[in-house]
From TrEMBL:
It is a multi-pass membrane protein. GO terms for cellular component: plasma membrane. It comes from the Bacteria. InterPro entries: Virul_fac_BrkB. The lineage of its organism: Bacteria, Bacillati, Actinomycetota, Actinomycetes, Mycobacteriales. This is Ribonuclease BN. Its main location: membrane.
Amino acid sequence: MDDAEGPAPGRQQGPAKDAGPVDPGPHTRDLDRPRRAPLHLRAWAVVRDMPAVLWRTVVKSWDDSIVGHSAQAAFWTTLSLAPLLLALMGLIGYVANWFGPDTIGVIHDRIISFGLRVFTPNVVDEIIRPMVDGVLQQGRGDVASVGFILALWAGSSALSSYVDSINMAHDQHTVRNPVFQRLFALLLYVEFLVIAVFTLPLVALGPTFIVKYIPASWHPAVGQLIDFGYLPFVVLMLVGGLALLYRQALPRPLPWYRHLPGAALAALIFLVASTGLRVYLSFIASGRGISYGALATPIAFLLFTFFLGFAVMVGAEFNAALQTRWPAREIRTDQLRDWVVEQIKEVGIPDPGKAASEGLRRATDPIRRRQRPEPAPEQPAPPPRPAAPAPAPRVGPR
């Protein structure tokens, strides 16, 4: 009777004897990992192994021709600056009324002031300021034109060079098709434009809104705090943008936190390089160095963009070196994909991705023409057989 009524309450039943192993699923693989070491031991391991990571970054950067890729990025960045400003200002014109009537003017002033902090005054006055003024005078009507579409394609050339460098740093430059890689850079460029259209007005008008909604007695202290913390805030925004670029550029991305060290290192390298370049250019402008004449300003801007590409590639190489030394666990999408592939293999269904790639390879193979069979080589004729001797005549009566 007890068995018919079921198990007693509170009694835990074990698994059935004939039950097979239970599949843990794609999200429980990390439960079998060993426990992590204490924080102080992990910190000491990072400090101990950091020289080896830095040396690997230097060697890998040199093997990947960092100087050549930085020069390529500088060239395309210089050519893409005007299309970038055209696309950015043209799109901001559609949302400027959401933030206030003088949004474009405030953004213009913020771009010029930030340029003066990063570049030399000659670069700002002769290159950046005329370019921004010329784009603002054209208005937003060019957004719907064919020229704007061409500007998008030209502006994405610089981002395409950065994407190629990041993929090469992580040894993933052969994963994507080259044509798809270029189209992907264009889509990534449009994505960053959309993000910049909404974040740039907020960054430019943020101090004005803060001062507007605080008591008047707080204005002096808050004004000083804004003046002191505005540049670090912009630097943090740039670090976040670089981390987003590092993650989006890779076909097989790393977890988010693994892209932050390289982004911070890239921002630090660019700030130090731009500061040293400003000192060097001021030394040349004083007449104590080589004078480039009318080419001084374009060369200075090219040097700034060269160090920008150099910093971006060093940050990517540093992230790759960290991944090599301390591999990160797979992201959830990769774990789910691997789990699905394992389940397909257990069931016996062929891998659809492998079948699709094999079909694509066969479809793109050169057409094989049917060839006529070659005639077999003529064999020498066999030697003639000797004639049989004639029978002897019969002698005798018939």
